[in-house]
Automatic annotation (TrEMBL):
InterPro entries on file: GntR_C, TF_FadR/GntR_C, Tscrpt_reg_HTH_GntR, WH-like_DNA-bd_sf, WH_DNA-bd_sf
Domain annotation HTH gntR-type: ranges: 5-72
One GO MF term attached to the UniProt entry: DNA binding
Name by which UniProt lists this protein: Transcriptional regulator, GntR family
Keyword field contains Nucleotide-binding: no
Key words of the record: DNA-binding, Transcription, Transcription regulation
Organism (species): Jannaschia faecimaris
One Pfam family this sequence matches: FCD
Lineage: Bacteria, Pseudomonadati, Pseudomonadota, Alphaproteobacteria, Rhodobacterales
Length: 220
């Protein structure tokens, strides 16, 4: 049994983490009457948290059917990936225009941590189970990339879209093989190179290339 939690933000964070790391199977029923015992709170509190998670697209809710972890599909992932490209291109270009040296330094630091994790994974010979530390580092990198766009609605929307994308990825691909990380190390480097060069066209292309394999309906 999980440690009892008394704060709604803690419950939200824990359920979000489980939804993003394969803690619930796609389409799994999420029952407040069962989950509340894990968190040491009322079923109504869990219900409220699940409703919040449904607003960001990680949980599906239907009257009389209750809550379920969102189902996954190649088509849904492709749709989310396309929208993510549009948001990230606009946010990154705006950050390049606004951010300056401090933004570049923050991006370089976030990239250094992410690159170290990815390079270690790329050396492993066997399949790599989904690792939360990598997902957290990648989200931090992409948040930093957009951090100086000065468009709060874009940042809020991007966070929701990124979470939905990550949930789709985990549901469709339980393991990431080392070759996956060989590829994305190069893609993230291309994004940083474009930022350092202050090259808007290169930035748009690097972001597109980073998601291109996910925007198609045929699994890669």
């Amino acid at each position: 049994m999980r440690d009892s939690r008394i704060g709604t933000p803690d419950i939200y964070a824990d359920l979000q983490h489980r939804l993003l790391t394969g803690g619930f199977a796609p389409g799994a029923k999420l029952m407040p009457s069962s989950l509340h015992a894990e968190y040491g709170c009322s079923a109504n509190t869990v219900r409220d948290v699940l409703l919040q998670l449904s607003k960001v697209g990680l949980v599906e809710f239907e009257i009389q059917r209750g809550f379920r972890a969102r189902n996954v599909s190649v088509q849904k992932r492709a749709e989310i990936a396309r929208f993510r490209v549009l948001l990230e291109q606009e946010g990154a270009v705006a950050s390049m225009r606004n951010g300056g040296l401090e933004w570049e330094a923050a991006l370089a630091a976030a990239h250094h941590r992410l690159m170290h994790i990815e390079q270690q994974f790329a050396k492993v010979r066997d399949d790599i189970p989904f690792v939360g530390i990598w997902s957290d580092a990648e989200l931090s990198f992409h948040r930093t990339l957009l951090s100086e766009c000065r468009l709060p609605p874009l940042l809020e929307t991007f966070d929701s879209v990124y979470m939905q994308f990550r949930q789709q990825m985990v549901g469709l691909e339980k393991n990431c093989v080392p070759s996956y990380f060989h590829r994305i190390v190069q893609e993230h480097q291309a994004i940083v190179d474009a930022a350092t060069a202050n090259d808007e066209a290169a930035m748009r292309q690097a972001i597109y290339d980073h998601q291109a394999r996910h925007t198609e309906l045929v699994p890669q």
